[in-house]
Design a protein that fits this description.
The protein is mainly beta. The termini are far apart. It is 10% helix and 27% strand. The longest helix is centred in the last third of the chain and has 24 residues. The strands form three sheets. Strands 4, 6, 10, 11, 12, 15, 16 and 17 form an eight-stranded mixed sheet that branches. The protein has a seven-stranded antiparallel sheet with strand order 3-2-5-8-9-14-13, with no helix packed on it.
């Protein structure tokens, strides 16, 4: 039976993976690691235009991609990610090999991506947080209007869920801090949150905004080449409910998803057919490395004043002592 299934996968050009065959490691500049490290940026920030030449000093993190259901390996290989940050923004870039496809009227015949970050303490990677009441019995394509409070411990931040049909290559699409929503009505780079695959609204609390900027290109608009996605996001946002809050020196649980426009020749990608990191089930640790050039923390003025007072009292006591001799 297994050999028949393997043969069927191979005829389709797919490579099924056993659970213990998938490699969870991150290859950082050619060296296996257990985490993605984002160094502090020195110098000019990357320009979001699809050209990675200004990322040359940022380490490359390579991770495997498999389907979220069945752990089928992505036929064109791994995803390469670069990540850095400054005092205000985190910058991320992804490179995914694959043939070009684009349709200005159909998102599913264009490539698509998303990030996912753990926010709630009980959030699982598999099933977008996996709140027990939101992982079965509902429509997959339904965005719930309101997330049950009982599911808040399972929150995940789905930042930059980007579908491309209204966009152009090499153009930077900016943040939206005015509409009080994560829904990007113009360029469809939505900022969402979820507690399960059946409950995935746009950011919608009282402090909701869309803090993502992004650009994309394909290196060869034919049958070969790579998709390149560049992005930035504010480290700290107004919403602690729907957004992960990022700080230097801290670690975060992270994942990346890619929708292949050639998943099916007739209709493009399907919602459940996306490729993910973490072998489809595990978070990957992402760490914002401390800035080695940051000045050390200074003592508070009250502490300094206390030392002055203590020194003064000591000298007074010392003078009094010698006066008695």
């Amino acid at each position: 039976m297994l050999s028949s299934l393997r043969s069927a996968f191979l005829l389709l050009g797919l490579s099924p993976l056993a659970a213990n065959d998938c490699d969870l490691s991150v290859i950082v500049n050619g060296i296996p690691s257990s985490e993605i490290v984002c160094p502090h940026l020195h110098g000019a920030a990357p320009t979001l235009d699809g050209d990675l030449s200004d990322w040359s000093n940022v380490p490359e993190n390579v991770m495997s991609l498999v389907t979220s259901i069945g752990a089928v390996e992505y036929a064109h290989g791994d995803v390469a990610m670069k990540c850095t940050y400054d005092d205000d923004l985190i910058y991320m870039a992804w490179t995914v090999k694959g043939p070009y496809r684009f349709n200005a009227t159909n998102d599913r015949m264009c490539a698509s991506i998303s990030t996912m970050w753990k926010v709630g303490p009980d959030a699982q990677y598999l099933n977008m947080g996996a709140c027990p009441s939101q992982i079965s019995g509902l429509r997959y394509d339904e965005k719930c209007a309101e997330v049950p409070e009982a599911c808040y411990a399972y929150r995940v931040d789905l930042g930059l869920h980007w579908e491309l049909k209204t966009t152009e290559q090499g153009v930077a699409y900016g943040i939206d801090l005015e509409s009080n929503s994560g829904n990007d009505l113009s360029w469809n780079k939505d900022d969402e949150w979820a507690v399960g695959p059946y409950c995935r609204p746009d950011d919608n609390d009282s402090q909701a905004q869309n803090e993502w900027s992004a650009a994309w290109v394909h290196t060869d608009n034919s049958t070969d080449g790579y998709y390149i996605f560049e992005s930035s996001r504010l480290l700290r946002t107004g919403s602690v409910i729907s957004d992960v809050q990022l700080e230097a020196g801290e670690e975060y649980d992270f994942g990346f998803s890619y929708w292949d426009p050639y998943e099916r020749l007739d209709i493009g990608w399907t919602k459940a057919g996306h490729y993910v990191t973490g072998c489809g089930k595990e978070w990957i640790t992402l760490r914002l490395a401390e800035d080695p050039d940051a000045p050390p923390p200074t003592k508070s003025s009250s502490g300094a004043a206390s030392l002055v007072v203590q020194a003064s009292l000591f000298m007074t006591a010392l003078v009094a002592f010698f006066a008695l001799i």
